[in-house]
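In the laboratory, one determines a bound structure by crystallizing the protein with its ligand and collecting diffraction data. In a computational setting the workflow is compressed into a single prediction: the sequence and the ligand go in, and a structural description comes out. We illustrate the idea with adenosine-5'-triphosphate.
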Amino acid sequence: MTKDYTLGKVVVPALRGVDLQVHPGEFISIAGPSGSGKTTLLNLIGCVDTATTGVVSVAGQDTKLLSERQLTHLRLHTIGFIFQSFNLVSVLTVFQNVEFPLLLQRKLDKAQRRERVMQLLEQVGLANHAKHRPNELSGGQRQRVAVARALVTRPQLVLADEPTANLDSVTGQHIIDLMKELNQKEGTTFIFSTHDAKVMNHANAVWRLADGKILDRLSASEAQRAMASGSH
Amino acid sequence: MLQLFLIAFRNLGTHRRRTLLLGGAIAGVTALLVVLMGLSTGMKDTMLRSATTLATGHVNVGGFYKVTAGQSAPVVTGYPKIIEQVRKDVPELDYVVQRGRGWVKVVSEVASAQVGLGGIDVEAEPGIRKVLQMKEGSLDGLKEPDTVLLFEKQAKRLEVKVGDTVTLSAPTMRGTNNTVDVRVAAIAANVGLMSDFNIFVPNSTLRSLYQLKDDTTGAIYLYLKDVSQVPAVQARLRQTLAAAGHEVMDNDPRAFWMKFEVVNREGWTGQKLDITNWEDEISFINWTLTALNGLTGVLIFVLLVIICVGIMNTLWIAIRERTREIGTLRAIGMQRTRVLAMFVFEALTLGLLGTLAGALFGLVVCLSINAADVAVPEVVAVFIMSEKLNLAVNPGSVVGAMLFITACTTAISLIPSFLAARMKPVTAMHHIG
Ligand SMILES: Nc1ncnc2c1ncn2[C@@H]1O[C@H](COP(=O)(O)OP(=O)(O)OP(=O)(O)O)[C@@H](O)[C@H]1O
Ligand SMILES: [Mg+2]
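The predicted complex, in structure-token form:
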């Protein structure tokens, strides 16, 4: 698939023919320099944006054939998205932000929601901040709220745009462990973009992206080696 | 659903300045609207009450008597029988009075004036006391024969005080001029246009001036309990009076003094009855009502446009933030319709609270203006027939205004949200500008 952004009369090709397949239960990392199209790719997979050409299929469904309503439904029930810029709802508390997708789903009652939200906040280490507003938190804390919000619905597919970029290595590691655990226990599929070699370590596979094209698909160890040689 | 309300409330609370600004603007316009409407209905009320008491009933049985084809007098002969029939035929009646009418020259030692003359039986007139305020003397003075009630303006022009004598001079039905000397018994506060060309004397004085018989009067004024019954009563009287053998003139919606020309041109002699309503008799000042309505309408329209532009402006400033939030909610999986419902609720809350505050404030202003007994400038007094400002608030129209403004502001404030909800989530999330 391809994706062009049109800025006035200038057409910016952000993705120039990307073809990839992710199987259920995979733990995939997308690596690449800034501006290579990582966010763009995740947006397309996450159905918050549409491809210029080509087909995006999620859970076996061609997203081009779905109505806006069905796409929204898909985002709510199947996909969890951790945005690069967090995008928390500023007027809601941490607890309410994390609870929000559950409310939209209308599957759990109040007590069940509470239990689920508090469990996740504990896992991301923010149980003590449940009543805070996003603007009272640090960048890293906000990122962890975003992680909790993406995971709270136990989605089949989690898309994470640089989920550890703002975290210290210990917390980052903790978040990755959490994701890994979910991946193994519940078979959740993860696709995340990252710069961080340590994070790539945990991936089944690493896709290297440059200038809107996929350079190669490497195993975690191959990627490590490639990065290491690249940095010298 | 609760969460929708919660976000909406939180939004209002978080953007306190914007909320106060918008809410204040909405409240201000509502208050202004309420005061304006109060002013306009108050003026209309005052005007109609004054006019209907001084110059017309709700329904009138008047008429013309012609000795020869070319000469008519605006009188009703044999009125006691007609009043009797009216009482029988009109159960909607509140009270009925009869008044002599004429057109006379008032002469004092220094000046003279042509005025309309009303003959009244003060004791039988419950309404007139409520409308006329005495500056000098008292209405009861008119119980004595050969007395006159003048308005302040006329008294000033004629340079007379209570107790002074003026001469009334008028042509009688037989074509000769007759005069009568009357003592000024009361001077009433001006009631606008009416006070320029109306004076009142006891009916007996009017009869002797015009050499009328005891059972002759100018017109019978019917006051109804409910003004909306006027057309029905008018139509019924037309039928029953004709059935009782009276000649009834065709309907002509003008004041009686505008009809002489037409009546004089017609060939008949004797008595004909003319059944009119208050709108006919004051049709010549009705344009002021129309003008007042028009003015209120224009003012309200201008105000609404201003507030709408203001709201748009304020909201466009907040749109960046708002658009991002909408993008995020949509990306998480909130349906368009629910996003919109949330913002409708927010706008509705703001609109209703704003208009409620505004309406209350407007009511307080109206009540305090009424309590303060504000005098109006003379130009205005001429039209509204009162020297005091009276604001009448109609609860129905206040609620109507509140709903209307809420609807307008909600519609306006929804435009940005609507546009944002239509965007692709990612476009909305990264919206800059
Ligand atoms: N909304 C947009 N309009 C126009 N061009 C865009 C838009 N978003 C991204 N681009 C362009 O598309 C290309 C890919 O951007 P993208 O955000 O996907 O990169 P990225 O790999 O996520 O970078 P980073 O690591 O800095 O987040 C860049 O050249 C960028 O300038
Ligand atoms: Mg990016």
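Residues 14 and 40 of chain A are 7 Å apart (CA to CA). Keep in mind that any predicted model is a hypothesis to be tested, not a measurement.
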